[in-house]
Amino acid sequence: MYVAVKGGEKAISAAHELLRREGRGDPSVPDLGIDQLIGQLRLAVDRVMAEGSLYDRDLAALAIKQAQGDLLEAVFLVRAYRTTLPRFGSSLAVDTSAMRVLRRISATWKDLPGGQILGATFDYTHRLLDRTLFRAEAGAAGSSPLPVEPDTDFPLGGPLPRALDALVAEGLLERPEPSEGDACRDITRHPLELPADAPADRGVRLQALARADEGFLLGMAYSTQRGFGAVHPFTGELRRGWVEVSFFSEELGFDVVIGEIELTECETVSRYTGTARPPCFTRGYGLVFGNNERKALSMSITDRALRAKELDEPVVGPAQNPEFVLLHGDNVDASGFVQHIKLPHYVDFQADLSLIRGLRAKRQNDKDI
Fold this sequence. Notes:
The chain has 12 helices and 4 strands, in the order αααααβαααβββαααα. Helix content is about 35%, strand content about 15%.
């Protein structure tokens, strides 16, 4: 039961003002610009953009600044703003095979057709604090200028082939199933319907995973790799780059390219442990806005785990349970439900308190008798 709280307007206004002051910090320090967040905290901006399900780095950076670095609060702000936007229609499916690749690796093929591009990654760095970053000014004594950014448009001469096509051609890897109908049901406009464990529900599951909290998906992926499931995959291909987005214009009668977005895509390869198919490899898939490799990889592993019923595999872990994963992975829902217990629950608590006191009194009376 919730009760209206009256008389707290001044206190709430004062709390808002205090929050603003704490967020600004020392007034003698220059204010943090949105362009600085986009340029220097890009991975945080991309995470908010992905989990907020709105491709706009400016708004994601603004949300991070307003939320004082609380990425979950920033995701909430972006999603709230998203609900106010008009909807003109659905874009066509993007062709990631034509991606302008910035980074592309595979853990299954050493000599990857088309070559591997390491790109910008933390994978090979030493986890040592770089104290030169304490320098506040570019060009401080001893600092070296950044190299000129190379031309990364098709660095190997054009769109790169799929790393897993060779396995598909040999019949060792399942072919991607074509989607049914013109478009998948949009979970931001239609409520999620459970159990969502049929093959036709995979598009809905992938939507939920793309919006899900990165830490939650990481935990789900880790759990199934440790044995709470049967998915311990190989990274067939992980690629990041720019992809064109097209929209069919009814007025013009043809497709129109409306822009480019940066995406991270991951396909994992797992051994098949069920009985419904002959021995083969199976796929997991992840696709995320921006530069977000850990999320895309975790999404791919979790997607494969959620296909357990479809592939006639035993369900032995939480990552294989669509209801558990899809209902608990949304960080806005989770945060709201957990944090709401900070709000007044006076009536609820008094009811429990009265109940406990009554039970203790009855127990004492029974002992006295």
